[in-house]
Specification:
Elements lengths: L8 E2 L9 H11 L6 H21 L4 E2 L17 E6 L9 H9 L1 H12 L10 E9 L2 H16 L8 E7 L6 E2 L5 H21 L3 E5 L1 H7 L6 H18 L8 E4 L19 H6 L4 E4 L23 E7 L9 H15 L5 E4 L15 H22 L1
Parallel strand pairs: 1-11, 2-5, 4-6, 5-7, 7-8, 8-9, 9-10, 10-11
Antiparallel strand pairs: 3-4
């Protein structure tokens, strides 16, 4: 994990919009229609090269492949794990957090689903169900992803001295269990399978990012007693650490958030309710939402929460929940707030979440706006650096 004692570094969470030509091929592939496999692989490779080049041009110090080859930040795992089947009805269950939002704001979500989501997704996001022993089988597609990213990074200008990271889903995001006797046994089985993916990413020379929005979601479930949420959260963290047991912490980033949609978010749990769980993950850096108005005030928790020695935080100082481009002066203010509380060398400026966590023709933040946000992020980090050093 690159750290800086000279300036504020910048990064993001990972997913970026896929180009239309790739989405067309991805859609045909997902729906079982005829498609040109070689053209698909070439389209993914070209998309990775383009988005890595754009990230570096915007000033990001740590880039990703934009998850260009994944149909979704979590659903991609259905192609890499044996032992899972799509849910019988072909649908994806709605989390208790999202269900509570829909029930409280039905008029808003009726409009949201009809306008923002209709026709946008490449394919329906059917939930996976574990129906047999879990085993990792995705080595070929993983290797292709890693090769594409390496090729894209190698093609950058010689003066780019940053790093690259690869997002991978947490064990809690693989799907529902209908095979193992207990939830713990299931999570550990998934963790042991995903260990292969995690270790391959690090062995290839990249930072590993664990994506776990599910930790925040279960804590935001208004129908589950807090003790039950805590028990499940403990299991999630234990499963992650089991999968990471052979990887040095400084090569791991952990990300959690509250979802990818623009919405009221009144049922989000306060981050200080879960920060102790987050900090128990064996990672060198922690990424979390801090740029949207439901969570921006929570920087105050770092006045009492203790960041472990040698760790860094990557608060979101730009958000995925609006097409407004944050002013660099505001971004700088957000960075400085955290730096004053945990130390300037312990802050990397990031984003709240990915900007295209699902492959979609209509991402909620337009791709041209995303690049503008990244340029504002760089400028805000420059302003903050001048204030802090």
């Amino acid at each position: 994990m690159r750290r800086s004692t000279e300036r504020i570094l910048t990064t993001h969470v990972g997913s970026l919009a896929r180009p239309t030509e790739l989405l067309d091929l991805m859609r045909a592939r997902a729906l079982g229609e005829s498609y040109d496999a070689e053209a698909y692989r070439a389209a993914v490779r070209d998309a990775v090269g383009t988005c890595v080049r754009e990230q570096a041009a915007c000033g990001l110090d740590t880039v990703s492949d934009g998850e260009q080859g994944k149909i979704g930040h979590a659903t991609y795992i259905g192609e890499r794990l044996a032992g899972f089947e799509p849910r019988a009805d072909g649908q994806s269950s709605v989390s208790a957090l999202f269900r509570a939002e829909i029930e409280e704001f039905p008029e808003y979500y009726e409009q949201y689903f009809s306008v923002a989501m209709l026709g946008g997704a490449v394919a329906p996001a059917a939930e996976l169900t574990c129906t047999g022993p879990v085993k990792y089988t995705g080595f070929e597609s993983l290797e292709r992803d890693l090769d594409n990213l390496q090729e894209a990074v190698d093609a950058l200008d010689d003066d780019w001295s940053g790093q690259a990271f690869v997002p991978a889903i947490a064990p809690s995001g693989a799907g529902a269990n209908s095979y193992y006797d207990t939830e713990e046994e299931y999570l550990f089985a998934v963790a042991d399978a995903l260990q292969s993916e995690y270790e391959a990413i690090v062995a290839a020379g990249f930072l590993l990012q664990i994506d776990d929005p599910f930790l925040s979601e279960i804590y935001s479930d208004p129908l589950t007693p807090i003790a039950d949420r805590r028990e499940r959260g403990d299991a999630y963290v234990e499963a992650i650490n089991r999968a990471l047991r052979n990887i040095p912490e400084e090569q791991v980033r952990f990300h959690t958030c509250y979802g990818i949609n623009e919405g009221p978010r009144v049922h989000d749990i306060a981050f200080d309710e879960i920060v102790d769980l987050v900090l128990r993950v064996n990672a060198g850096a922690y990424s979390f939402e801090a740029g949207n108005p439901r969570h921006e005030h929570e920087y105050h928790l770092w006045e009492t929460a203790r960041l472990p020695e040698g760790k860094v935080i990557m608060p979101g100082v730009i958000t995925h929940s609006t097409n407004i481009v944050e002013h660099p002066e505001l971004i700088a203010e957000r960075i400085v707030r955290f730096a004053e509380r945990v130390g300037r060398e312990n802050v990397i400026a990031g984003a709240d979440c990915g900007f295209a966590s699902q492959a979609s023709y209509t991402p909620e933040v337009h791709p041209t706006v995303v690049w503008a946000k990244f340029r504002a992020l760089w400028e805000g980090a420059r302003i903050a650096t001048a204030q802090l050093w």
